[in-house]
Design a protein that fits this description.
This protein has five helices and four strands, in the order H-E-H-H-E-E-H-H-E. It is of the alpha+beta class.
Length: 121
Amino acid sequence: MLKPSVMAAAAAVLIGLSTIASAADTVLVIINHEVSDFNGWKKGFDAAKVHRDKAGLKERYVLRDVDKPNFVTVVLESESVENAKKFASDPALKERMKKSTTIVGTPDIKVGTTAAVGAKK
């Protein structure tokens, strides 16, 4: 179970990005998970950049919970909702995460968009 502070951090990122978003909403992929060894996980995350690049994703943030630094939130930006959903549901991504020796449990992967705070659609 993810700590409320991790979820609050992800929400803060979404709100923060919404203030700099252009007229179009920013599409984000947010991944929350626990790791057994942050430094080991980070090496694997960095090595997997080729997959994120191929999917057209840009790394925006890697967040660590201040009370439990092995709870990690990754925020990626996508060019489109379709592209983000394709990445998030990719069986190869899930297999790489499953094979990781540092990821604990099942990662929570969400696709969302930002919107200006108080904006009406």
